[in-house]
Every structure is written in C-alpha cells, then in structure tokens.
C-alpha cells in the first residue's frame, strides 16, 4: 500500500520536523552529493524541506513525491525562494523518468514506508547510473520496542505553535508486529483555528 502524506499530515509535516531536528540532514546529504557529482533524485521529497536547501547550495537535485498535497505545499514554498525545482509525481516503487541519476537520496526513513523495501531498493538501483550512490537514513523504533511508549494507547507525539499562532498536535497510537517487523501507527492530527481541523491517518513503518 502506498502511503502519501495528505491533508494535515502534509501541512504539519515540516513544522514538526523543524521543531525536532531543524534540517540537520542537509549537511550530510550535501557532503554525500559532493562524492557523486551529477544529477540526483530525492525520493519522497515532500515539500522540499531538505531538497530546496540543496538546490540553493548549487546541487542538481530533482524530487519524486507521491502526495499531491505535499507537491502543492512545495510549489507554494518555492516561489518566494526564487527557485524552480523539478518535482515528479509518482510512486517510488514504480516511477521511472527519462534519465538516470548519479545519486539517489532517501532521507527521513522514507524507504521504510515502502510495502516491500527490498522491491523498492531493486527498483531504485535501476534508476542509478553505474557506480551511482544511494544516501539512505533508516529509523529504529527503539522507544516502541523497549516499551518507553505505551502500545495500543494514544499519546501526545508532537506539538507545535505555527508562526500565525495556531497550534498543531499529533497524537499517535501504535501496535507492534514483531514477526513482520512492522510498527502500525494511527495518527490523529489537529490544528486549532476557526474552524479547528482534524485528520486521521495510518502508517506502517518497517524496521
Ligand atoms: C517522512 S516524509 C519525508 C519527506 C521529505 N523527504 C522530508 O524529509 O521533509 C516521507 C515522504 O514520502 C512520501 N511518500 C510516501 N510513500 C511514497 C511513495 N510510494 N512514493 C513516493 N513518495 C512517497 C510521503 O508523501 C512523504 O512526503
């Protein structure tokens, strides 16, 4: 099953990451790209949170993203920055463009959203030039596995106050499937305002 980020999951995505991490992967990706000069592709590029700073540093990075909502947010963000990013809409397990890439970037655990990561990796390999490079980050759900987060109970996962004063909250409930090595998560997003908004989503993350 594909897992595009939609509605409030898209709208609050960057703000939650910003509150937690502040884009620290950009420098890692930049030093990786220096070793693989040429066109590159960020897989699951979202709204360009990591890709746009790389473009601004002069790297030739295109984006691949499934979610229309993420792409629309990205288009709105690009305009004031004065950049014209190349973003492809497609599924990371199937999409193929007209060219091959010197490097693929898959930050922020996007590979683990694939229904079968091995199938996705084989497909990604076919998008690369010979001797091309893959930058990949993965996430181990230690807090869930070690029981620091309660299973089958809702807990406050992220909270952020947006620049316009509205408050975004993400509540999460998870279940572990040890045999298949999957965390099944239910997400409940809410955003204050008039009217207040909510959005429910489900996510399967493999470890
Ligand atoms: C954890 S977010 C990371 C976004 C971006 N890389 C960042 O760090 O800001 C994962 C992204 O992958 C996208 N995605 C999920 N499944 C996908 C698929 N099958 N093909 C392409 N993109 C997908 C989601 O819509 C989401 O934007």
Question: Which SSEs are present, and which pair or pack?
Answer:
Layout: H1 7-20, H2 25-35, E1 40-43, H3 51-56, E2 61-65, H4 68-81, E3 87-89, E4 101-106, H5 117-127, E5 128-136, H6 142-145, E6 155-161, E7 167-177, E8 182-191, E9 197-206
Parallel strand pairs: 1-2, 1-4, 2-3, 4-5
Antiparallel strand pairs: 6-7, 7-8, 8-9
Description:
By secondary structure, this protein is an alpha/beta fold. It has two domains: 130 residues, Vaccinia Virus protein VP39 (Rossmann fold), CATH 3.40.50.150; 65 residues, Single Sheet (S-adenosyl-L-methionine-dependent methyltransferases). The chain is 29% helix and 31% strand. The protein is built from six helices and nine strands; from the N terminus they run ααβαβαββαβαββββ. The protein has a five-stranded parallel β-sheet with strand order 3-2-1-4-5. Strands 6-7-8-9 form a four-stranded antiparallel β-sheet, with helices on one face. A hairpin with a 5-residue loop joins strand 6 and strand 7. The longest helix has 14 residues. The two termini are 16 Å apart. The mean pLDDT is 96. The structure holds S-adenosylmethionine (SAM). The site of S-adenosylmethionine has 23 residues, from strand 2.
């Amino acid at each position: 099953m594909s897992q595009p980020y939609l509605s409030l999951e898209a709208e609050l995505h960057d703000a939650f990451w910003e509150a937690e991490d502040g884009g620290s992967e950009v420098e890692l990706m930049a030093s990786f790209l220096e070793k693989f000069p040429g066109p590159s592709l960020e897989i699951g590029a979202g709204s360009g949170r990591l890709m746009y700073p790389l473009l601004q540093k002069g790297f030739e990075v295109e984006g691949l993203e499934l979610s229309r909502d993420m792409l629309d947010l990205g288009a709105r963000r690009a305009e004031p920055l004065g950049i014209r990013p190349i973003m492809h809409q497609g599924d990371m397990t199937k999409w193929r463009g007209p060219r091959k890439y010197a490097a693929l970037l898959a930050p922020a655990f996007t590979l683990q959203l694939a229904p079968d990561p091995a199938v996705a990796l084989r497909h990604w390999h076919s998008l690369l030039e010979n001797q091309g490079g893959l930058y990949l980050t993965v996430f181990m759900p230690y807090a869930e596995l070690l029981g620091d987060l309660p299973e089958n109970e809702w807990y406050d996962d992220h909270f952020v106050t947006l620049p316009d004063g509205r408050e975004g909250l993400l509540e999460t409930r998870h279940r572990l499937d040890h045999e298949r090595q999957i965390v099944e998560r239910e997400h409940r997003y809410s955003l204050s305002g008039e009217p207040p908004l909510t959005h429910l989503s489900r996510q399967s993350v493999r470890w």
